[in-house]
Write a structure and sequence with these properties.
Blueprint lengths: L1 H109 L1 H44 L1
Length: 156
């Protein structure tokens, strides 16, 4: 029975040795895996530092652009207000011209008879002036004809 006890102890020792070797191999594999993970994390940290620097620079530029856009927007607002003022002035001018045109049209409508009389009297005056010119031209020709026989007698 003692032999069985030694054999059992030997089997237990061999089993314990196999267990220790298995645990050792597993731990060495785990060590390699953890080293790979550590180097990957270190690379990611370096990349994150670069990304952080780029992000900070980008945020600075973005803030600068936002300030610039804000300033230009304020300047543009004054231009828009000036253009609006000009538009209001033009609208006021149009309204005034329309009122004047309406007033002139009403006055023309009211004085239509008087205007027609003025036009008729103008036509009459122009006809008289034309006849006066024609008569004057005829008289000048008559005078020239009358003057010519007298001059011919004096020459002879």
């Amino acid at each position: 029975m003692e032999v069985v006890l030694y054999i059992a102890a030997l089997i237990a020792a061999i089993g314990f040795l196999v267990l220790c070797i298995s645990v050792g191999v597993t731990l060495f594999s785990l060590k390699n895996t953890l080293n790979n993970i550590a180097s990957t994390v270190a690379g990611i940290e370096g990349q994150m530092e670069g990304i952080t620097r780029e992000t900070t620079t980008l945020l600075t530029k973005t803030n600068s652009l936002a300030d610039d856009i804000s300033e230009k927007s304020e300047k543009l607002n004054s231009v828009v207000q000036a253009v609006k003022g000009m538009g209001d002035s033009v609208n006021g001018l149009n309204t005034s011209v329309q009122r004047i045109t309406t007033a002139v049209s009403k006055e023309v409508g009211r004085n239509e008879e008087k205007i027609a009389q003025v036009v008729q009297w103008s036509n009459v005056a122009m006809e008289i002036a034309d006849k006066w010119r024609q008569r004057k031209t005829i008289q000048e020709q008559d005078i020239a004809v009358v003057d010519n026989p007298a001059q011919e007698k004096n020459k002879q």
